[in-house]
Amino acid sequence: MRPVRVTAPEGCLLNAQPPAAVVAGNVETSQRIADTVLLALAQAVDLPAQGQGTMNNLVIGDAGWTYYETIGGGQGASAGGPGPSGVHVGMSNTLNTPIEALELEYPLRVERYELAYDSGGAGTHRGGDGIERSVRTLEAASLSLLTDRRRHDPAGARGGEAGRRGENRLNDEVLPAKAGPELKAGDVITLRTPGGGGYGAGG
């Protein structure tokens, strides 16, 4: 570690001072830090392509209930093989909520839950695929989305292609990465999470 020096002056993004908002530091800012550090280190050593780079935070609820989940995506491929699909990348301390448990506890219906096929970047080794998850709310509720990689694709490595960026939708309307609209009964929120970058120019 001796050649590595970390500098984070007071007031910068990584050393925020009150009253700066830091709510996303654990789930989204940490992903940007990992991507930045790994891109720098990749100039010296062989590292995997970028993974989804987000926790895909989804919150739905009202005054009486709250459903919060983070959703996996694609991991970047490496010299050792393809990236895994439908996993958390970089950090996670959450488990996958079974659909049956979610629907028993909340006024929600899961309408789609599958891999976002071909969202991983092509290459000698392909990046992992993201996830597509659609949830219908059965009563009016508030929605909060805190997601990244909706504008920039996860980069490939050593000539591999980028993974496909994610997308958020409310019914047929595309939502931004960070959004908080009100939901009506019957509305469907869909998150398509990013795929991982591919590795190598072949494939």
Task: Tell me what the structure shows.
By secondary structure, the protein is α+β, with helices and mostly antiparallel strands. The chain has one domain. It has 2 helices and 10 strands, in the order H-E-E-H-E-E-E-E-E-E-E-E. It has helices spanning 25-41, 99-105, and strands at 57-62, 65-70, 108-116, 130-137, 141-146, 167-170, 173-175, 178-179, 182-183, 188-192. Strand 6 (167-170) and strand 7 form a beta hairpin.
SSE arrangement, N to C = HEEHEEEEEEEE
For the record, the count of structural domains works out to: 1
- Name the structural class: alpha+beta
> How does the major sheet shape up?
5 strands, antiparallel
- This entry's quaternary arrangement is single chain
List keywords for this structure.
single chain, 203 residues, alpha+beta, 5-stranded antiparallel beta sheet, globular
Topology:
Layout lengths: L24 H17 L15 E6 L2 E6 L28 H7 L2 E9 L13 E8 L3 E6 L20 E4 L2 E3 L2 E2 L2 E2 L4 E5 L11
Antiparallel strand pairs: 1-2, 1-5, 3-4, 4-10, 5-8, 5-9, 6-7, 6-10
In short:
This protein is α+β, with helices and mostly antiparallel strands and 203 residues long.
